[in-house]
Amino acid sequence: MNARITQAPLDASMRQLGALALFPLAGAALVILAAQFAPPPSLKLFFHLEAAVAEALAFIGSAIAARAFDRDDYLRSAWVYQATCFLFIFLSDLTRFPGFPQAMGIDIARGVLSLIGNGSAIVSAFRFGRAWTEADLPDAVRTRRRAYVATAIVAFALAGGPLVHDLRAFFAGYIEALTNVASELGDIGSLCMLAPVLPTAIALRGGTLAWPWSFLGASLFAWLAFDGAVNYAGGAHVDDVTKRMLVEVFRGLGCTLTLSAGLAQRHVLRLTQRTLTPPTY
Q1: Residue 135: pLDDT above 60?
Q2: Which controlled-vocabulary keywords does the entry list (predicted)?
Q3: Domain residues of the chain, as ranges?
């Protein structure tokens, strides 16, 4: 009987955490449906609104996770930097919104905002990666090295080509490419910095602690796919609507997976606090 009583809340928590995966899936489905059925004049506005909402949700999820920690907790700062990342990316993309004044220098301002946002993402991923050491988790040097090598290969395979292409464009005088360069550097750097945590998420699979890390790792892979879609879809002989749909699907996944990670982090913390709090009689 006691085992059943103890297991019931845990099973309920696992179902709630699993349900957070529905946010990214629902968002991706909405973008695909809009691309298929929305009339072209309204589709461009929809994509702008979708991007803004997705980035705002990622900011909210990160802020919720940060507020769940005590002020001096190590992971609080990691989530604060994550929230800062999405705030500046949101501001950068806001300058692309229809009706926003396209004054001289707006491309540079957009690129600077993107650099700050993606720089914050790298710092955030570094602090998440350091959680391995800070929490005294099992530190197998060989496992960590393999994780670094594997993630670096994947990151450069997906975003290395686009990064070289956009660096050439930027140095050729195309200032708008600075935004893409910032995004690609941020995504490659973030995934590499988060490499030590990925084996931990795999080792913890089946438990509640795995959910925030798994969502975070998945979000970074989604952002790498976003970089690939931005640069490769055009060369794959797909029409403009399909290319934009792919870009927005992966952008939405990157953002909503971060939202799910933040909500999962708060849920796990609350569950842990309830578990550690002795019962009163």
Answers
A1: no
A2: Membrane, Transmembrane, Transmembrane helix
A3: 42-276
Contacts of 248 (CB under 8 A, 6+ apart): 31, 35, 47, 50, 51
What are 215's two structure tokens? 């969502």
- pLDDT, tens only, 21-41: 899 999 999 999 999 998 888
Contact 62, 86 (CB under 8 A): yes
- Residue 243's CB is within 10 A of a number of other CB atoms, namely 17
- Three-class SS state of 203: helix
Residues in the chain: 281
Task: Return the closest-CA partner of residue 244 out of 24, 25, 21, 50.
Answer: 50
Cα separation, 191 vs 207, in Å, equals: 23
**Structural contact between residues 85 and 121, judged by C-beta atoms closer than 8 angstroms:** yes
Contact by Cβ (8 Å): 109, 173: no
Give the helix/strand (H/E) hosting 24. helix 22-37
Helices (H), 95-239: 106-134, 141-171, 177-193, 197-203, 210-232
CB 247 within 8 A of CB 230: yes
What residue type is assigned to position 65 of the chain? A
Distance, CA of 11 to chain centre: 27
Question: Taking the C-alpha atoms of 69, 92, 189 and 167 in order, what is their torsion angle to the nearest 10 degrees?
Answer: -170
Output the six-digit token pair for 71. Answer: 């002020």
